[in-house]
Amino acid sequence: MAPQQDQQQQQQQQFALLPKIINGGIAGIIGVSCVFPLDLVKTRLQNQQVGPNGEKMYKNMFDCFRKTYRAEGYFGMYRGSGVNILLITPEKAIKLTANDYFRHKLTTKDGQLPMTSQMIAGGLAGAFQIIVTTPMELLKIQMQDAGRVAAQAKEAGKAVEKISATKLASQLLKEKGIFGLYKGIGATGLRDVTFSIVYFPLFATLNKFGPRRNDGSGEAVFWVSFLSGLAAGSFAALFVNPFDVVKTRLQAIKKADGEKEFKGIMDCITKTMKYEGPTAFFKGGLCRMIVIAPLFGIAQTVYFLGVAEGLLGVKKSA
């Protein structure tokens, strides 16, 4: 019994929870700070609907970036970043830590982790993160899209009331309770679970290639983890972009004049397909790939470098 207990204690020690949570938080803040302007452009492109005569406010990613910067300035590119940075710490911490935890639990006694188990671990991590992701995305999208809606209202000679994330959250809580902050949770889950099922196994597979560290840990060197995060993030981002378009449109509370409202996931898919065609589901796809690639490249690098372990003065677990 004693040897078995010692073995169980060693296995528990191998999964250090606190450092993984801190690493996830640090990674999220750094990543979001670097790529947020591109994320704002992605949101505006996805929410933009084609007018009856084919008119569009933004022709492409570069046109959206140029017009947004010209109209709102440098700080306008960071609309909604406050709520994103505030909640990205628990979001990334949950996502990365949950994936590691489930991979740890699903690893067989002989140290093997089949691809199906990797996908299950990733999917469960994505499911757990929507607890934080849904309200974060809901509030962020309103702030990011406010400039687009205001610009279209101005062209029509109308004024749009300025909003803040705090005011919007208070209003939703007052009118609909806590569930008001979870508008679009189904679409968010569809996107995040699918993304994690694709991303984490792909990252783990790519991360096995390339040189290892010299510290005996068997882990990949810095640039291997970084490039693996870039590649896996880019592919997974493009793969789930249709779900991201649906989620973004469902969570946009304020629409520009003439833009269609959506009752749910299937209604959004049906109307988008009918009025804009299948290419609409890949709006902002390139932009999203450019956002997600460095976001997860940075995240995985910070995570695997063990920044938190260094700060806490603890030995990095395998």
Automatic annotation (TrEMBL):
Which cell locations does it reside in? Mitochondrion inner membrane
Sorted UniProt keywords = Membrane, Mitochondrion, Mitochondrion inner membrane, Phosphoprotein, Repeat, Symport, Transmembrane, Transmembrane helix, Transport
Q: Where are the Solcar repeats?
A: 15-105, 113-209, 220-309
List the Pfam families: Mito_carr
Which superkingdom heads the taxonomic lineage of this protein's source? Eukaryota
Output the GO biological process annotations, alphabetical, semicolon-separated.
malate-aspartate shuttle
User: Under the cellular component aspect of Gene Ontology, which terms does the record hold?
Assistant: mitochondrial inner membrane
Please list the reactions this protein catalyses.
L-glutamate(in) + H(+)(in) = L-glutamate(out) + H(+)(out)
Q: What is its main location?
A: mitochondrion
**Does the record carry Phosphoprotein as a key word?**
yes
How does the UniProt record describe the way this protein sits in the membrane? Multi-pass membrane protein
GO terms, molecular function: L-aspartate transmembrane transporter activity; L-glutamate transmembrane transporter activity; symporter activity
Q: Membrane-spanning residues where?
A: 21-41, 220-240, 289-312
Q: Which family does it belong to?
A: Belongs to the mitochondrial carrier (TC 2.A.29) family.
Known role: Responsible for the transport of glutamate from the cytosol into the mitochondrial matrix with the concomitant import of a proton (symport system).
Name of the molecule in the record: Mitochondrial glutamate carrier 2
